[in-house]
Specification:
Elements: E1 3-6, E2 14-15, E3 18-19, H1 21-37, E4 42-46, H2 57-71, E5 77-81, H3 88-91, H4 95-98, E6 103-106, E7 116-117, E8 122-127, E9 130-135, E10 138-145, H5 150-153, H6 163-181, E11 190-196, E12 230-234
Parallel strand pairs: 1-4, 4-5, 5-6, 10-11, 11-12
Antiparallel strand pairs: 2-3, 7-8, 8-9, 9-10
Helix pairs in contact: 1-2
Amino acid sequence: MRILHTGDWHLGKNLEGYERLQEQEQFIDELVTIVEEQQVQMVIVSGDIYDHSNPPAKAERIFYEALKRLNHKGERLVVVIAGNHDNPERLTASVPLLYEEGIFLLGTFHDVIPAGTYPTFTLHQSGKGYMEIEFQGERVLLLTLPYPSEKRLNEIFAEELQEEVQQKAYSNRIGEVLQELASYYREDTINLCISHLYLRGGAVTDSERPIQLGGSLAVHIDEFPKEAQYIALGHLH
């Protein structure tokens, strides 16, 4: 099975006051070409579709055209999760039109994709944070954790805690969520995990503004399930 992992498109981002939408359209063209030439069956987009929670209309148009081209009339599954720059509700507003084509948009951990038969695959089971998909005899178990801020997890890690304690509490909680979801992994499934978060020890490049980190809470790599064969992250780039 061929899977392509991408993310952090930041559509609508300006550089020193200059619009980059034309450049971003060229990126989408190149991405679609790669997907077609490599006969990719599943595309994962791991968050930060937009550069702002209220993106310009042209950036949204570029995104929806990209989804249509990548999905190619239902031939290819496309899974997209929200990043810290995305508004979860806005990102998923179009899901009633996209589900039936095999385009899955997930805004928060609590979003659930309905099980059923889609154009080129079957979604056998799904729930908060996971889905089991069958492609031509191969089964994929995908864990999904869109940007897990305290608000989006509906949890608070008390501000009065010392930073070190707060960091540990957050990392441990993400680990608990992932380990619980990992119980769905099996030996006969392709076990994947997709998220958008700050991995402890990750290096920040000049392309990242401090505000883009979306908070300093980080997750230790040991919190990820060892059964996962590939972990598709977004956030630092």
